[in-house]
Design goal:
380 residues, alpha/beta, five-stranded mixed sheet, 12 strands, binds pyridoxal-5'-phosphate
Amino acid sequence: MRFETLSIHAGQGPDPAYGAVMPPIYQVSTFAFEGVKQPGVFDYSRSGNPTRRALEECLAALEGGTRGFALGTGMAAEATALALLQAGDHLIVHDDLYGGTYRIVTSFTAKQGVAVEFVNLRDLDALRAALRPETRLIWTETPTNPLMNLLDLEAIAAIAKEAGILTLCDNTFLSPYFQNPLALGIDIVLHSTTKYINGHSDVVGGALVVKDADLGERIGLLQNMLGSCQAPFDCFLVLRGLKTLALRMETHHRNALAVARMLEKHPKVRRVLHPGLESHPQYALAQKQMRGCGGTFSFCVEGGEAAAFRLLESVRLFILAESLGGVESLIEHPWTMTHLSMPEDARRRAGITEDMIRISVGLEHVDDLLEDLEQALAAI
Ligand SMILES: *Cc1c(COP(=O)(O)O)cnc(C)c1O
């Protein structure tokens, strides 16, 4: 079955109790045993819950995996995946990525005795040079946040496989509709379902999806041990959002590309970072690896930080807020907002600048979005 069909039906048959056509919210902590030493399908909601299972099966189907896991937030998904590591292991992390990932690997994972090394994974020779006998995991994110750099997932996965190292890809920016890392050889896909998968800015959530059964068992145990699972009501909301993912992603892509093309021609815009533009240095890789670009990208204005702040204060429709992937358009300043948890020199080394603006283009009418940015650019 195809993506649109799976998003509505995978894991979601009519409910066995009363035939409800949509998975009900099983808002319950524990389940009655059928008899002594005879648990039913579910026994306790941390270990498993029917609403959560519906979402997890749907996520697995959409990413082409065998097991999906719904976690409390994107960061809970990160913490659960990082718990696969132990003291003495070596973790390679791409050097330009979500600020919260930077923070957890430097402030938490490193303190657990894991050697954390940042490597520019666009440079495959640098990756090969960084491999050690104790390297256990390579952590990727593509497109990167907020720089919209791309990583060649197939090439990275091939290098890792040869060395017997696990790979993870944070696929939040594209969602399974536009990119499927498992099909390119990546072992673990991670999502902040807070973003496109839920898509309505009304819940926080995370997901992990794997193909390998043993890896699925290990992550399932960690989800249960850590208690990092997502609550039934939130699973219900994410599953409800997921049903329209294909429709939403098509419009996010179309609207964002139209905005990017307008900005590229605008005299007050210094640079547009969008992998769907022919001017993007990795345009060919985008065409090969992704089926679309989603709604989030960045641009730099002429006039430095002061001009960026004036733009942020002049928009009327775009909302000044962190996060991305919702139906509504958002605008933010990575230097002082989403990427503040990265030290200044790390931000600078990655290429984040004070004149950079990140936008999450929503599903409003594209002309309203273009008009809002045009009037705000006229004000800077
Ligand atoms: C938001 C985000 C996360 C963290 O997810 P939360 O749901 O906020 O915990 C991780 N990775 C990326 C790329 C994100 O955008």
